[in-house]
Amino acid sequence: MEISNFESGIEQNQNNKDSEIKPTKRRYWKFIAGFLGIMVIAGAGFFVWNKYFSPQAKLERQTQENYQKYLNWQTNYEKAMKEDTYGGKTPEETLKMFIEALKKEDIGLASKYFVLETDTESPDYLTRKKWENYLQEISNKNLLQQMANDIEKDVKPLTKALNNKEFSYALFNEDGTVGISIDLKFNEYSGVWKIESL
Fold first, then answer.
1. Is the domain of 89 the same as that of 115?
2. What is the pLDDT of residue 160?
3. Read out DSSP for 58-87?
């Protein structure tokens, strides 16, 4: 009986040790899992902060947005300039085409010989609305024919072409001073000369 009690005592002692070890192992793994979970959440939070909310991330995002806006602006600008094909291969040719449109009193056509508005702040950006309105005012006063005749008869080159991109004509007053100057600019995208100012 004593041996049997002794053996059962040993067995019970062994069971107690096993039961003590099992909870300790479970707690250990729970601690490790919890610690790893906290590390993952902290790492994810750090990543999200750095990627989206940090000052550096905001600056990078703003820089990328500005660069994309610039690329869009450049694409639209170049497309408009390439499609702007009304004009001649020389300043004289463009001026003749403009005079012919004035004689026909075709404001729509005459305005197409002017450069596009390139001021991005203007509501008329990449249009010729300003020139259409100007020519319409002259038409309302019945002066388109007179304008065509004056330009055709009295215009003289004001400057020699110092470069291949700009050229000027002038209508001179009786005293020899410049009354009106007509400046032309070469559109490198479409290869034609356009009236820049009148």
1. yes
2. 61
3. HHHHHHHHHHHHHHHHHHHHHHHHHH---S
Which single residue is written with the structure tokens 């007053």? 173
Is residue 55 domain-shared with residue 114, that is, in the same domain? no
Cα separation, 120 vs 125, in Å, equals 6
Question: Is residue 153 domain-shared with residue 172, that is, in the same domain?
Answer: yes
Do 113 and 178 lie in a common domain?
A: yes
Q: Tokens 């000369």 correspond to what residue?
A: 193
Q: How far apart, in whole angstroms, are the C-alpha atoms of residue 180 and residue 77? A: 30
Write the CATH number for 163: 3.10.450
pTM, rounded to two decimals: 0.64
Range of the domain at 66: 2-81
Sheet containing 178-187, strands listed edge to edge, beginning at the edge strand earlier in sequence? 155-157, 166-172, 178-187, 192-197
DSSP state of 118: -
Per-residue pLDDT tens digits for 98-117: 999 999 999 999 999 998 88
Total domains in the fold of the chain = 2
57 shares a domain with 131: no
Q: What is the largest CA-CA distance in the chain?
A: 145
Q: Cβ(161)–Cβ(169) under 8 Å?
A: no
CB 159 within 8 A of CB 185: no
Question: What pLDDT does 2 receive?
Answer: 52
Q: What is the pLDDT of residues 116-166, one digit of tens each?
A: 888 888 888 888 899 999 999 989 999 888 888 888 887 888 766 556 788
